[in-house]
Amino acid sequence: MSDTVISNSLAILAPFLIYFFGVLSPGPANLAIAQIALENGRSKSVVFSVGVVTGSIIWGITTFTGLVQIMNQFPLSIRILGFLGAIYMSWLGYANIHKFVSGMQNKSSDSRFKTISNANYFIRGLMIHLTNPKAFLVWTTILVSALDIDKGVKLPPHIILIICGLLGIIVFCGYAVLFSNKGLVLIYENYSRFIHLIIGVIFFMVAMQLFLITLSGSL
Predict the structure, then answer these.
(1) How far is the C-alpha of 96 from the C-alpha of 93, rounded, in Å?
(2) Is residue 2 scored above 70 in pLDDT?
(3) Any alpha helices (H) in 25-153, and if so which ranges?
(4) Strand pairing partners for 28?
(5) What are phi and psi of 37, to 5 degrees?
(6) 152-198 pLDDT tens trace
(7) Residue 99 CB: number of other CB atoms within 10 A?
(8) Stronger pLDDT, 46 or 66, i.e. the higher one
């Protein structure tokens, strides 16, 4: 009896555990959130985070409505998405390397970034997740874990989407709050050029990995 209860509980929790650890693990979105929090403060980073979560929920809706299955029947669409993601990650890498090479200081960049609207940050967050084809793999895994062979989905899809959305907000906004800490901001101001170099290299590595995976047809 107790084993059955535990088994059923784990089966119900599985989609949320997959999503939670998926968004918690370091990735392009987490890195971008941390950078925006350090450069432009908590509020801008939170807006960016909401864009990321929105992109994630769009992927979730796409998965549960069966559009991902349609995409799987047309591999070219997934490969195009993969290449677009690699291009976007490369652009983020270039932007950071350019800051390192040009020797821009954090203070001089602040005046430029303050002119960027919240809507712009939201769209950036949305795009960084929508152009990441690995997101649909995570949601496909969630869908599989949420299925019962005899009864279909164990929980209503909208419940899964709502709870995963809340988890996404907690995790991504948590990154925004953490990296807008005054101590970390001070460290960033002192070593901003080298941090830009590291972040730029990481984004280029992600772009190269995504490009090679897409080129090989592994997506």
Answers:
(1) 5
(2) no
(3) 28-40, 42-64, 67-73, 75-102, 106-113, 118-130, 134-146
(4) none
(5) -65, -40
(6) 556 788 899 999 999 999 999 999 999 988 888 888 777 777 888 88
(7) 21
(8) 46
- For residues 63 and 35, give the distance between their C-alpha atoms in angstroms, rounded to a whole number: 30
Give the confidence band of 105 by pLDDT, cuts at 50, 70, 90. very low
Compute the distance between CA of residue 125 and CA of residue 3 in angstroms, rounded to an integer: 42
Of the candidates 125, 121, 144, the residue with the CA atom closest to the CA atom of residue 19: 144
Cβ neighbours for 52, distance < 8 A, ≥ 6 positions apart: 29, 33, 125, 126, 128, 129, 168, 172
Task: Give the DSSP H or E segment for 148.
Answer: strand 147-148
Rounded Cα gap, residues 155 and 143, in angstroms: 10
Say how many residues make up the chain. 219
Going by C-alpha positions, the residue among 14, 62, 47, 27 that lies closest to residue 125 is 47
What does the alpha-carbon distance between residue 140 and residue 136 come to, in Å, rounded to a whole number? Answer: 6
Q: What is the pLDDT of residue 219?
A: 56
Q: Is 115 helix (H, G, I), strand (E, B) or coil?
A: coil
